[in-house]
From TrEMBL:
This is Guanine nucleotide exchange factor. InterPro entries: Acyl_CoA_acyltransferase, GNAT_dom, SNAT-like. It comes from the Eukaryota. One of its GO terms (molecular function) is N-acetyltransferase activity. Residues 12-217 form the N-acetyltransferase domain. Residues 150-170 are annotated as: Disordered. SUPFAM superfamilies: Acyl-CoA N-acyltransferases (Nat) (SSF55729). Keywords: Acyltransferase, Transferase. It comes from Entomortierella parvispora. PANTHER family: SEROTONIN N-ACETYLTRANSFERASE. The lineage of its organism: Eukaryota, Fungi, Fungi incertae sedis, Mucoromycota, Mortierellomycotina. Residues 157-167 have a biased composition (Low complexity). It holds the Pfam family Acetyltransf_1.
Amino acid sequence: MSQPKASNQLALVFKLLPRADVARAAEIEASAYPESEAASLETLNYRHQAVPELFLGCYLQEAAQEQEKLVAFIVSTLVNGDHLTHSSMFSHEPQGSAVCIHSVCVDPAYHRRGIASRMLQSYTKHVQDLKARGHHLDTLPTLAAEMAEKEKKKENNNNNSQPSSSAHGNSFGQLDRVLLITHKELIGLYAGAGYQLIGPSKVEHGPDLWYEMVHIL
């Protein structure tokens, strides 16, 4: 039996996740996290509506299929402060100084292939680009620009256009850090992607202890 391909052998594309794929993201979330920790479809829809610039999808391009398959994603909101709190998990502050990562999810069928590490590296670069530009999606010069324009045209043609990113009022020039909480067994994953351990988190979400980590921008 052949071994599953590692992430560097897979044709992966990292780009902003369109609204039409949020339901698929919710399926991945439900399969990757315990029920007590998984975000609902409603919550993911809220996060996408609030700050689509921080909802990044990882898509697999398969030679036998023309369409790309969503296999992983990262979603965040903006918050203020140097540390995450319980309210950080359920809020979004458009002028926040920190990116709060809520989910780093990989379809279980693609676990242990290094996808999460590659996705985190792409996501950090994406956030750094957002900070450098300082504004909203309309000004994104990097991985999301072409895809965003295609999605905008598609949705306009369907008379079901999403509000422009400027309507969200999000800004990114003030960002100074990316924060997340994780369980002990995944600290190494995030450390390998450039995150530093702060220590046990005060956030209570599910039965297990969380640890807070930070990446300074």
